[in-house]
UniProtKB/TrEMBL annotation:
Residues 257-318 are annotated as: Disordered. Residues 67-259 form the Trypanosome variant surface glycoprotein B-type N-terminal domain. Residues 270-282, 296-309 have a biased composition (Low complexity). InterPro entries: Trypano_VSG_B_N_dom (IPR025932). This is Variant surface glycoprotein (VSG, atypical). Keywords: Cell membrane, Glycoprotein, GPI-anchor, Lipoprotein, Membrane, Signal. It is a lipid-anchor; GPI-anchor. Residues 1-25 form the signal peptide. VSG forms a coat on the surface of the parasite. The trypanosome evades the immune response of the host by expressing a series of antigenically distinct VSGs from an estimated 1000 VSG genes.
Length: 340
């Protein structure tokens, strides 16, 4: 009986632990997971453009450096060719955006900078979320020293490797870009209040009304980017790197279409020349056929001539035997007269 009670108590204890454990171990949501994936898609798109441009240069021998420069303008900012040359503001919210006081700061200058604003952790009193941008990301690159180019470069290298995708090749089309733009627009939230006016926010905790993207987590501060309202009144046309990327995709698509048109025209020309030189009913083939006909006719004529000659010179066997008899008779007559 005692053993039964102990066994029952053990079972109840295990069951209680199983009921309590899921509640205590509920994993915290991944902050900015969707936003990270969306911006990663744009990073992958710029990589595809770069690969396509290299392919054009290898095939045509024409320099496309002016277009490759536009790719780096999208990623790092106008006139900045590499992450190590980027300039960072003294405070994070001056790069990522804030809309307080007399002056507003906006994000959207460079794709890489917006990605870091969404995924860089901040040390200090306001703890970072357990998972930021993707599960298991716990690294900090001295985020409190925001102005350090080395720290920002280390974060970019980590995020860029996470963004790399395989399987998709070739330059992106305008249709593909527009689909990605719509996905970005769907995640950008408009904010409007009497004190701070209208602005757009991307990332951060959705339930809060954020105005300062400094990496801290309060009711007004968050890990986010702030964009100005676009000139068309929408929530994306104020993003500088997005507008540059759209123009770049259009230009690359036009060049690709032009190159394909030239290649098709060249192929048609080659096919035409091939048909003219060696195709059916071409002069070359007619000449070849004439030579073959002439050779056939000559062969037939020679064969006929030889046959006719054979008929004239060669006599039947009966005639040949008759001649032999005459000669033998002549010899016998000669010998008879000689000895008589």
């Amino acid at each position: 009986m005692t053993m039964c009670k102990k066994l029952l108590g053990f079972i109840v204890g295990v069951a209680s632990m199983m009921m309590i454990t899921p509640v205590s171990s509920v994993e915290e949501e991944i902050v900015n997971e969707g936003e990270f994936k969306t911006l990663c898609d744009f990073v992958s798109l710029t990589q595809r453009i770069n690969e396509s441009l290299r392919g054009m240069e290898e095939k045509s021998g024409v320099s496309v450096s002016f277009l490759q420069k536009k790719v780096t303008d999208v990623l790092f900012g106008t006139g900045i060719g590499d992450v190590s040359k980027m300039k960072w503001q003294p405070h994070r919210d001056m790069d990522c955006g804030s809309n307080t006081g007399n002056r507003a700061f906006w994000a959207g200058e460079a794709l890489m900078k917006d990605l870091l604003c969404l995924c860089e952790r901040t040390d200090g009193l306001h703890s970072s979320p357990e998972h930021l941008c993707y599960r298991g990301r716990t690294k900090r690159h001295n985020a409190d020293n925001w102005q350090s180019p080395t720290n920002r470069k280390n974060t970019w290298n980590e995020l860029q490797n996470k963004c790399k995708k395989g399987g998709i090749e070739g330059a992106p089309t305008r249709t593909e870009f527009q689909d990605m733009r719509k996905q970005l627009e769907a995640g950008i939230k408009k904010r409007n209040d009497s004190q701070h006016g209208e602005y757009c926010i991307y990332g951060g905790e959705k339930a809060k009304t954020l105005r300062i993207c400094d990496g801290r987590r309060t009711e007004t501060n968050g890990i986010c980017v702030l964009y100005p309202r676009g000139p068309d009144g929408d929530n994306a046309s104020g993003i500088e790197w997005l507008n540059k990327l759209e123009r770049l995709v259009k230009n690359v698509e036009k060049i690709n279409q032009s190159n394909h048109g030239d290649m098709d025209a060249e192929e048609d020309t080659n096919n035409t020349n091939s048909n003219t030189g060696t195709g059916e009913n071409s002069p070359a083939e007619r000449s070849h056929e004439s030579r073959e006909n002439d050779e056939t006719q000559n062969t037939q004529a020679t064969t006929t001539s030889e046959t006719q000659t054979g008929l004239i010179t060669a006599r039947p066997p009966e005639e040949q035997k008759s001649s032999v008899k005459i000669i033998l008779q002549f010899v016998w007559v000669f010998l008879f007269l000689l000895f008589v």
